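Minutes, project huddle
Topic: does the predicted pose make sense with zinc ion bound?
PN asked that the exact inputs be recorded in the minutes so nobody has to dig through chat later. Recorded below.
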Amino acid sequence: MVRSSNIVCKIKFILLLTILFIYANTISGEDINISILGLFKPQEIRLCSGSKVPLEVTLDNGERMYVGDNYLTVSFSGDHLEVKNSLYQRRPGMLYQTRGLEVKNPAGIKAPPFFQIGIPGKLYRYYRGRLQILTGEDALTLILSVALENAVETITFSEIQDSKDQNFITAMSIVVRSFLLSEQDRHPDEPFQFCDATHCQLYYGNDAVVDSTLIIPQSRDLVMTFNNQLITPFYCHSCGGYTADPEDIWGHPLPYIIPTICPYCQASENIYWTATLPRDGLIELFGTDFSNIRIEQDSLTGIVKKVRLNGKNGSLDIIGEDFRIKVGQKFGWGEILSNKFDIEDAGDVIHFTGRGKGHGIGLCLLGARQMASEGKSYVDILNYYYPRVRLTPLQKQHD
Ligand SMILES: [Zn+2]
Ligand SMILES: [Zn+2]
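Predicted holo structure (tokens), as shared on screen:
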């Protein structure tokens, strides 16, 4: 007995080492590529250095220019980019055309470049990392390449915003790291792995990082595993009192996520929302002249699983998640904020009263923040929202 359990232990140990080795190789020296500012569909950006070190910009034909006290204007022009260097603005002919460009630090400087990007009239943000600018379908595509831990810090602080609670921040950083390592195929047909919007994870650039020392150092190589496999720890803004079963939202379960009661976000007024949509718009959207709209099926945790439109020509059932997505595509994503809502038919308009924001699966950001403020550790927080998951050290290989 002892011998066989020893062998099983050894096999498990070797298996674990193999898996960790695979993870380590996946990330060793590999930067994470994130598409930034895509939601703005930028037609023109301004680029300047964020420090005294000039940026080295290389065009697709190998031509190089430097951006120090000057700035660069890059415009989208169909199948190519137009690049103008501010120093040469008064000299005609100094307009460059290229299919893409790369921004780095000059040779000999090891640190990643630090720069500011402006979308005139909209925003200016600082970023750290290598930058590529390409022509997208209808706008510029900006791709930032950053080391894993830089991405972890920036995303963590972008997602948690103004908190300074070490345990909340640390819990999120482990979630973010695991997400980055496990979800690298979210944009399979694009030249980047992640976007900076809620589809992936928020990435607001350097200004977002309040104080990276708030991440507890011992947590820096922890990732989340289930049965010795790295998992994707989905998370949401607020679950509205009960975290969701992925099966109720996406139609398939995830073995490492189970719904959990969340008393922690319930005290926050931030979890409640209302929306009012025009009846005509919904008729047009779903192609049926309905006389009555109601929830046909919901889950024990309050997730709307089916919405029914009753009309003259029979009834139409719409899966809850499809309903939210279709309404979002037509009326904007700021209307139906979660899959937990009630419907009130008021004639020309339909009122929705909901709770929770996001899909409600996994860690609830508002709840986790509240837990940390009550003195819970980052381990307590992660154990609470992912009770089947273990925290596993990831042996990293730096180049
Ligand atoms: Zn994305
Ligand atoms: Zn919650």
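Observations noted during the meeting:
- The two ends are 44 Å apart (CA to CA).
- Confidence is low (pLDDT under 50) at residues 1-5, 7-28.
No decisions taken; revisit at the next huddle.
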